[in-house]
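Supplementary Methods, section 5.1.

A reviewer requested that the exact input to the structure prediction be made available. We therefore reproduce it here, unchanged from the version used in the analyses.
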Amino acid sequence: MLKDNFSVVHENSHLAAKVSHLLKPKALISPFLLASTLLISASSVADAAADYAVCASCHGSQGEGEVVPGAPGLSQLPAWYIERQLHNFRNDVRGAEDAHAATMQPMAKSIKDDATVTALAQYIEAFPAHTPPVKFNGDIKNGQDYYIQKCGACHGTDAVGNVALNAPALTGLGGDYVYRQLSNFRAKKRGLHSDDKYGKPMSIMASTLPSEQAVIDVVSYIESIGQQ
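The structure derived from this sequence is encoded token-by-token as follows.
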């Protein structure tokens, strides 16, 4: 393996020399050091791909979701949000809200360490965006009104999320998952853990939706955004 790795570094040394010259022409950057870094990065991606293979059985090979009913799409989520939720599952902040979360908790805890969590989240973030199929048939106009009033300030008018407010994108999750989470927040099944800093505001906001039909309408509107 050492010989193979050296060969890869050697073969890429000329390319690395050109890259180092373009990136920092006034500094001396070893072509072999840069090529070695590229090799390590490729190895990290391969490791993350192997780790994700376990996730793919439910979430799909490209994070499209719904391979197992109820598994959310991941392809439009940012790495910081994926990482936070994995840590929440690993630290028992999440896992008690429903049967799906209870299944996810031991999977997250099986991840080797925090560095692996970070690498896995970054690997998932690189997936091409996938648009889930429409599952709900609520009143889209009514859902839009509720969404603008209660959701848009954090998640954005187009539901793509806002990192400054720690609000994830919603359009790629899938209607079933969004409906289940809004229902969990409304029922105080999620967001009450003392360490769930960002779940608490969601629980409060979701509880202002006056009925299950309002939840369905909001989900229908979010799905409609994803189809645009």
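Residues 17 and 30 are 7 Å apart (CA to CA). These observations are discussed further in the main text.
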